[in-house]
Structure formats: C-alpha cells, structure tokens
Design brief:
With about 110 residues, the protein is mainly alpha-helical. It folds into two domains: about 70 residues; about 40 residues. It is built from four helices and no strands. The radius of gyration is 20 Å and the shape is flat. The termini are far apart. The mean pLDDT is about 85.
Length: about 110
C-alpha cells in the first residue's frame, strides 16, 4: 500500500462514521422532540452527544491522530479551537454587556 493510500480511511471506516453520525444526530433529535428528558439533564445529554459526534467526525472522517506525525495537525486543531472559543465567548460577552448598558435606568 502506498503512503498516499495509507493516509486515507477505508470504505468500512467511512460507513461506520456515517452510521454513527446519523445515529447520534437522530438520538439528539428524538431526545428533544420526543421530550424524553427535560431540564439540565437534557442539556447534559445533548452536550455528551455533541462531543461524541465531534470525536466521530475527527477520527473517522478527518483522520485526526492517525497520520505518521500527528503533532502538527493536533496543534492546528487546538489553535482553531481556541480561536473559535474566543469568538463565541467574546461575542456572548459583548452582547451581554451591550444588553446591560442599554437597559433603562430608573
């Protein structure tokens, strides 16, 4: 097997990732629509399903950690994750403070 062919997944791994992704998505959908659980347990369940979905996507589709030198890909992924967190939490922080500062004072 050539080096280029060994860096890609097999058809079996792609099907496994596809089926797991569909299953996790449907589980989250049914948990919300079917009102199987409520409150903070629902949020925790959705976060756990989202984390599992992320791991499936990263390992089975993006092959993160399966290459010969995974350090650079992991470093780029962690940088992208930090930028994403800064954008999301920075936006939420700005919106909260804009809302607070725009409240009428009585």
């Amino acid at each position: 097997m050539s080096k280029a062919a060994s860096e890609h997944g097999t058809l079996k791994s792609y099907w496994l990732g596809f089926i797991l992704s569909i299953g996790l998505t449907l589980a989250a959908y049914w948990a919300v629509v079917g009102k199987l659980i409520a409150g903070k347990i629902l949020i925790g369940t959705l976060l756990a399903l989202a984390l599992a979905q992320t791991v499936v996507q990263l390992v089975l589709f993006l092959h993160l950690g399966q290459e010969s030198k995974p350090r650079w890909n992991l470093l780029v992924f962690l940088f992208m994750l930090s930028v994403l967190l800064i954008l999301v939490f920075g936006s939420l922080w700005i919106m909260y403070h804009l809302n607070y500062n725009m409240m009428p004072t009585e």
